[in-house]
Amino acid sequence: MDKVIAWTQKKIEGTVILPASKSESNRALVLSALAGGGMPENLSDSDDTRVLAEALKQAGGLVDVGHAGTSMRFLAAYFALREGVWELTGSERMKQRPIKVLVEALWELGAKIEYLGKEGFPPLWIGNSVLKGERTISLDAAVSSQYISALMMIAPLLKGGLVIDLKGKVISADYIRMTAEMMRCFGVNTRFEGKRVLIPEGVYAPVSFRVSADWSAASFFYELLAITEEGEIFLPGLYIDSLQGDARQVDLWRQLGVTTEKVVGGVRLSANSDRVARFEADLSGMPDVALPVIVACCLSDTPFHLTGLDTLYIKECDRVMAVTREAGKLGYGLQIPARGELCWDRVRNACTTLEIDTYQDHRMAMAFAPAGVRYCGLIVRDADVVSKSFPGFWEQYDHLVM
Ligand SMILES: O=C(O)C1=C[C@@H](OP(=O)(O)O)[C@@H](O)[C@H](O)C1
Ligand SMILES: C=C(OP(=O)(O)O)C(=O)O
């Protein structure tokens, strides 16, 4: 499905129902499975959470997670712990997203895992492993925090627990903290000593964890207000004091003209025209808000220099390439000064087409949607890719904009 966006010039004002957090849901599902009971409440309706929930019910056999990276990484560790034989695969893109760091760590614990395709990438064969604990493993923390979260969650079930030494730059660190916080909710206390994570042997309690609204999904509505420079949006169920690190995006958007107010039952976003002359940020802690920030800066004519984008190359698509190419169609000349960086110095060329490709990436579709309020008739190709994290996105977007 392609989506044509025609803004009716109405004021952006209303309530947006966000999906439940995909990251909280996926952790809650794995932790409940490891606890041997308890059903998380208010689970995300995203494709990624759905495939994980189904996979956790399987006693073995073929499991295809599609585009769901978190589900792939969490399941690799979970299946290695469980009895049974699995073939764990995903979409063509998933077969290009690395998993070597996690597989090598699991091998060190005694897992029997084989690559069924290219070395270092899914699909994986995982079978009847007996994992050993009471050891320290070292892990490259600069590729994906999901490997670390995956290991942390199974660690209490290993005899003697596990110590994980994080090597190199620790990216997406708030996701590691979210994992530790959620493990605590399920009864296991993890300790951090600098770049060392200490997980004791323990037993998870089958609690009924309630998932809250998704901060990463909120970023596209911040973006919309940053572009329109006026309007207000109420986001029920979103709390500043959240387990999700993306709650810290509040500070980024303040610099781009959107303020956040804590109100009863959620937060209210308000737009103004007060923004920094040049936006600079290291987004290595918040990779999922990078695309909406980039498109918001371009469309609000705010030059920017972003660093810490190294992990964007291995997401659902190569997001650095994809956003540079698609913003380029609208005439914005983005530049890549070094790997993991992106900048824009207000270089404007002619707009060549209003057709935006989305590269099977939900965040590409959602990040370019707000551009439709500046470019009437903008077409977002394969708009249904949003179901990976936010199936109701277009419904929520339409009632605000069209
Ligand atoms: O653990 C998680 O829930 C996630 C971690 C992040 O990935 P990386 O650690 O690979 O950056 C993030 O981009 C992803 O959407 C969700
Ligand atoms: C990177 C993402 O997800 P995953 O890695 O779980 O596929 C995302 O949702 O933007």
TrEMBL record:
CDD domains: EPSP_synthase. GO terms for biological process: amino acid biosynthetic process; aromatic amino acid family biosynthetic process; chorismate biosynthetic process. It catalyses: 3-phosphoshikimate + phosphoenolpyruvate = 5-O-(1-carboxyvinyl)-3-phosphoshikimate + phosphate. SUPFAM superfamilies: EPT/RTPC-like. Pathway: Metabolic intermediate biosynthesis; chorismate biosynthesis; chorismate from D-erythrose 4-phosphate and phosphoenolpyruvate: step 6/7. Residues 9-60, 63-396 form the Enolpyruvate transferase domain. One of its GO terms (molecular function) is 3-phosphoshikimate 1-carboxyvinyltransferase activity. Its EC number is 2.5.1.19. Keywords: Amino-acid biosynthesis, Aromatic amino acid biosynthesis, Transferase. It is an enzyme of class 2 (transferase). InterPro entries: Enolpyruvate_Tfrase_dom, Enolpyruvate_Tfrase_sf, EPSP_synthase, RNA3'P_cycl/enolpyr_Trfase_a/b. Belongs to the EPSP synthase family. This is 3-phosphoshikimate 1-carboxyvinyltransferase.
